[in-house]
Specification:
The chain is mostly helical and about 130 residues long. Helix content is about 80%, strand content about 0%.
C-alpha cells in the first residue's frame, strides 16, 4: 500500500505549482524579451540577429504599459507614480538599445552589437534591482 501511495503523493505535489513572477503578463513579456536577448547574443547570422532584436523590441513595447508586481504591491520606496516613471524610462532605454542592436546587426557591425549587448546587460541589472522584489 505504501508503494502505491508514495508515487501518488509525489505526483500530487508536483502538480501544485507556486505562482511565480513569470505567471504575470509582465513576467511573460520579460521572459519573451529574455529568450530573444539570450538567443541574439549567440547568433552568428546578422539577419537572424536583427529578427531576434525585433522580437525583443515587441516584448518591451508590450511591457511598457504594464506595472511590475513589486510596484503594484506598494513595495517601491518612491511610491507608485515615481516608480512607474522610472520603470517606463528604463523600458524605453532598453527599447532604444534594442533598436540600435538591430541596426548594428543590419550593418554587419559585430563589435557594436557586442558593445550594446554589454550595455543592455547593465540596464537590465539596474531594472531588476529596482523592480524585482528579493
Amino acid at each position: 500500500m505504501k508503494k502505491l501511495l508514495f508515487p501518488l503523493f509525489a505526483v500530487a505535489l508536483m502538480s501544485v505549482s507556486p505562482v511565480s513572477a513569470d505567471d504575470t503578463p509582465l513576467g511573460k513579456e520579460m521572459e519573451a524579451f529574455n529568450d530573444a536577448y539570450k538567443a541574439m547574443r549567440r547568433v552568428q547570422d546578422n539577419a537572424e540577429g536583427a529578427k531576434l532584436a525585433r522580437e525583443a523590441q515587441e516584448a518591451l513595447l508590450k511591457s511598457f504599459s504594464l506595472t511590475p508586481e513589486f510596484v503594484e504591491k506598494g513595495g517601491h520606496p518612491d511610491g507608485k507614480e515615481k516608480a512607474m516613471a522610472s520603470y517606463r524610462t528604463q523600458i524605453a532605454q532598453a527599447l532604444t538599445m534594442m533598436c540600435q542592436i538591430e541596426a548594428a546587426f543590419l550593418a554587419d557591425d559585430k563589435a557594436k552589437v557586442d558593445e550594446l549587448v554589454q550595455a543592455l546587460r547593465d540596464v537590465k541589472k539596474k531594472g531588476h534591482g529596482e523592480f524585482i522584489e528579493e
